[in-house]
Amino acid sequence: MGTDSEKPGRATGLGTAGVAVTLAGVFVNGLAYVVPVLGARHLGPAELSALATLLALGAIGGVASTGLQIAVAVHRARHGRAATARPTLLTVLVTAALLALTLPVAAVQLRLTAPAVLLLGVLTVAVVAAGRWLGELQGDQRFLRLAGGMALLGAGRYGGMVAGLSLGGGLTGSLLAGALTSVLVLALLVRLNRDAGIDPAVPSLATRTVLTASGATLAMLVVSYADILLARRFLPPDVSGTYAVGTVLTKGALWAPQVVTVIVLPRLAKGDRRALFAALALVAGAGAVLVLGSALAGGLAFRLAGGPDYAAAGRYAPVFAATGALYAVVFILVNARVAASVRWPAAPLWASTVIFVVAVATVVPRTVAGIAGAALATAAVTAVVTGFLTLAQERGSRPKRTRTATTTQAEGHVTVRDG
């Protein structure tokens, strides 16, 4: 416990860290947003749909990065500075092997070129490796440096693609630039985290923990990106291009409150219930604002996302935004279940994905409205089920343990360590 005179300074430090992480998240999500926006202006409808599909595949393939980051952050928040090199290496190797098996199949089934999927694989592996250093910074609550690391990774992951598209490199050229910059940024992340240190007395991070977190993250990404992949599969190329523009709004609503998840995760690892409910309120509020804005200015939203040719599809904007807002709530809930070491934390998401895919393949109308409506219904059901399970888990916890965890967190979390 610090003295009373130290508390205001600590609170200010935490607020500054929150602002820094927010700005980093805005920067990263802004670059991610710019990629399809530039694609809509520099690529034809078919290539735009291919770009959106590749971005979705890259996000799904890169979930091991987020899973690794979550596992490292939760372990460090609970136990201290543990060794993470071995689980990181295993995660990277397994990811590379899975990409080598699945990307060629995806190239055939989704009508993608071999160079594009190869470059996507290189980019994804680099992003996965970066999860270790971001997780160490997050678990140590070094949020200012974490913000810098997030910005660096975003610049590497998306900045190269933005440059490639702006310079007329086309689909393959933009992926080549993104792959090169993603690999180069790893060296900067290592230097940023050079003084994180390892405590030999702390138990090492178990690979199983990384697999659990990665599996949950994979489920979150698969269920939220399944609609764009199915749109690519079942809609004509020009119509799937329109759907790709709509998913820009989905991803905006999904990732806009990302800072809440980043800041709250160490608290969730220590059992802070109030932090969970506060995070849910913040994320739900942000989603409501975005859905309202898309309902009032749907045409403008589609025009900004894809250009004037897509403005007529603005009537679909609230549906896409609401889907992303609901999945943002689901992401908070699943992170809370992972932090609480719940067994099979993402089971509802996998079930929702299977039901959604079967429905689109059999009964859902193969139109923008049909697939987007089914995606919204899936997001709503998933949020309700996951929320029920999370609240049931909270009620099943012993009150004494909950109070102890909350008190410990209140005393320890306010310190933001940055050099």
TrEMBL record:
Annotated signal sequence range: none
Membrane-topology descriptor:
Multi-pass membrane protein
Where does the record place the region Disordered? 396-419
Tell me where on the tree of life, at the top rank, the source sits.
Bacteria
Recite the UniProt keywords alphabetically: Cell membrane, Membrane, Transmembrane, Transmembrane helix
What stretches pass through the bilayer?
12-34, 54-75, 87-106, 112-131, 143-165, 171-190, 210-231, 243-265, 277-304, 316-334, 346-364, 370-392
Tell me which species this is from.
Micromonospora reichwaldensis
- Identify this protein by name: Polysaccharide biosynthesis protein
Q: Where in the cell is it found?
A: Cell membrane
